[in-house]
Amino acid sequence: MKKDVVPVQIRGLLPSANGVALFIGNDDKVFVIQVEHNMGAIIGMALRGSHHERPLTHDLIGHVFQGFGITVERVIITELRNSTYFARLILRQDSELGSKLVELDARPSDCLALAAAQKRPIYVTSHLFHEVEDMSEVLARIGEEGQSGENPGGETP
Q1: 132-137 long-range contacts, CB within 8 A, separation 24+
Q2: Does residue 84 sit within a domain?
Q3: Domain total for the chain?
Q4: Which CATH number covers residue 15?
Q5: Within its chain, how far is the Cα of 64 from the centroid?
Q6: What is the tens place of the pLDDT at every residue in 38-92?
Q7: Does 107 reside within a domain?
């Protein structure tokens, strides 16, 4: 992996009045991406390994990928512009003709839902990682107060 990205994971979810705060980061730093309520619920389900009775959109996309021999290689959260995060979804298709990588622009929430469901790595560009505000103390405080709503790792953050 190139040195211009930093490996991260979803460290916690916190429902709020405006949606769900996703705490993304590693041992060095944690930042927040705000997503819609339904996306927060989908990501939470994927992290817990629970499934909806009928396939949701991200499940359907995963099934289509599987049918065509496509896997999610990785997700990269690339930038923050005008209070909006941007991300890239990196897909790999292996066939008898060889391997092909495809990079797509996608919403971070969609990327994170697919990465969580398929247990794929999540990265953030080094530039963005250094730019975002560190929310590690907030996540730790939430964990101490027992109000974190979701703790995907099953551990105290």
Answers
A1: 132/29, 132/31, 132/80, 133/31, 134/29, 134/30, 134/31, 135/23, 135/25, 135/30, 135/31, 135/32, 136/25, 136/29, 136/30
A2: yes
A3: 1
A4: 3.10.690.10
A5: 20
A6: 999 999 999 998 877 888 888 889 889 999 999 999 999 999 999 999 999 999 9
A7: yes
Cα-only R_g, the chain: 16
Q: Structural domain of residue 31, as residue ranges? A: 5-145
Q: 149's torsion region: left (phi>0), alpha (psi -120 to 50) or beta?
A: left
pTM of the model: 0.85
Domain for residue 20, yes or no?
yes
The one-letter code for the residue type at 109 is: S
Beta bridge partners of 154: none
Q: Is residue 87 part of a domain?
A: yes
| Complete edge-to-edge strand list for the sheet that includes strand 84-95 | 30-35, 19-25, 5-16, 122-125, 70-81, 84-95, 98-106
